[in-house]
Amino acid sequence: MRLNELESVGAILKGHFLLTSGRHSEGFFLLSRLTQHPGLLEKWIEELVSMVKSEEWFKDVSVIAGPAMGGILPAYELARQLGLRLIFFEKDQGMKLKRGMQLEPEEGVLVIEDAVTTGGSVLSVVKEIEALGGRTLAILALVDRSGGKLDFPVPFFSVLRVEMPSYTPKECPLCLTGQELVKPKL
After folding, report:
1. pLDDT score for 97
2. Which of 23, 106, 99 is nearest to 68 (CA)?
3. What does the domain layout of the chain look like in residue ranges?
4. Contact at 8 Å (CB) between 142 and 159?
């Protein structure tokens, strides 16, 4: 059902794509096409909330965090549904809090991203949360492109789990055929 929703809003692209991680893939989830529909995003986040609300650590969550850009709207909707504060991290030699956002020592944080492939952006956020004295309690994603193969240091939950292969530029079969490489977020 969720895959059908992504298809209906044109969020699943086929081609030769450069991912944020630097890897290449023949498929891309352009989740801004989902998050631009508040009603759909609300349902996806409700599903995540139902997955985590009975977890023991959930009572310690006080802040929702997302990496810019893809994690901002899911983080906002999660914070709205839970009645919690929202912060987001921006790329700046790693992921940094800016715009006057702060994290208090020992605050419990849920980190949410739109899609994860290698988990690099999310792990950069987790590292910064720890550096600021916070505690990452879990990681959430709308889409897990790894098919469940990611190994995070905290519990991980996603609405949709699919295996969509990605390749280093040297091993990419699409590069070998000469297919044009596209940056889909531009």
Report:
1. 72
2. 99
3. 2-176
4. yes
